[in-house]
Amino acid sequence: MLIQENLSLKPYNTFGVDISARYFAEVHSVEELIETLQSSNAQTLPLLFLGGGSNILLTKDFDGLAIRLSLKGIKEEIINENEVLVTAKAGENWHQFVMYCLEKNYGGLENLSLIPGNVGTSPMQNIGAYGTEIKDVFESCKVLNLDTSEIETFYLEQCRFGYRDSIFKQEGKGKYVILEVTFRLTTTNHKIDVEYGAIEAELENLEIVNPTIQDVSKAVINIRQSKLPDPKVIGNAGSFFKNPTIPIAQFEALKQQFENIPGYPNGDFVKVPAGWLIEQAGWKGKQIGNVASNQLQALVIINATGNATGKEIFDFSTMIIDSVKEKYGIELEREVNII
Ligand code: EPU
Q: Which domains, ranges and CATH numbers included, belong to the chain?
């Protein structure tokens, strides 16, 4: 076990923010993780667990022990003629895992192609895109309980998945480390979900009539590449805010004033695309200092010059929140974890 001192976390967060951690350790197994947690630093200092670093914004040097989870491995268990349970360790890269499943012709994850990050953080915020969320294919996950040092299994119901939400962001926050995740995928009779308008349009563009799961993945990759910046090239953390859900009455009132406002009914609420609100408030493509709102998808905040500090990005996001609030009376909530 190697604990490094004063290490820059720049390579470990997709915003590319240059912030350091007082101590840093990379762990490759549960044993190594437990050993690290038993070290005197871990007993006395705050802990920060890092997965792919694709959903965090580091705003100040971290005066504690950052632990990067690099547990690797994938295993499979065919459970009936139509389904397989596939388990991936927390440190597996999400997109490579999705590609592995597609090569084996396991269905269920194709709409989630090209999402940055690692498998271990996928349940935290119930990652979702193009009509699918991981809760739709989630079987269970194994976690280390930091209070008891026991390994526990969480099944679907216990995870309390919601829109970009789970128990791990609520009551369980800071209590568990996700070690591996098991998904229930199909081996035949795949359920193809192409209802999301953009996928339908892209499949038409590719002249595909009866799409396979691999075709759906290709369409999703094309759509994402057309408007979401590659974090390896331009620092970002995907959607910076959640799409707000507002009461129907509030939406109807806004519609009187802004007749083009889009909204998707969601029970007694209406989900309004935050990207639209941000664009209409004049932020799309706008740059202040080193930070900008992405020109092709206003919901994504980018480290435009590569030199942005976490504080600058945070302040930029506050300006967006204030300006959307002033124009529409809607308070945007950050999706990215602020550290
Ligand atoms: N829109 C604009 N201007 C913009 C961006 C969006 O007007 O600059 C409007 C358009 O009307 C568009 C609508 O917003 O039709 C929805 O846009 P898009 O399909 O790009 O999806 P989104 O709601 O902005 C969500 C997820 C994404 C996910 C896509 C596709 C959230 C917070 N974000 O974005 O997830 O990829 O749907 O399913 O729910 C992420 O979480 O990091 C992420 C990228």
A: 4-69 (3.30.43.10), 74-227 (3.30.465.10), 235-338 (3.90.78.10)
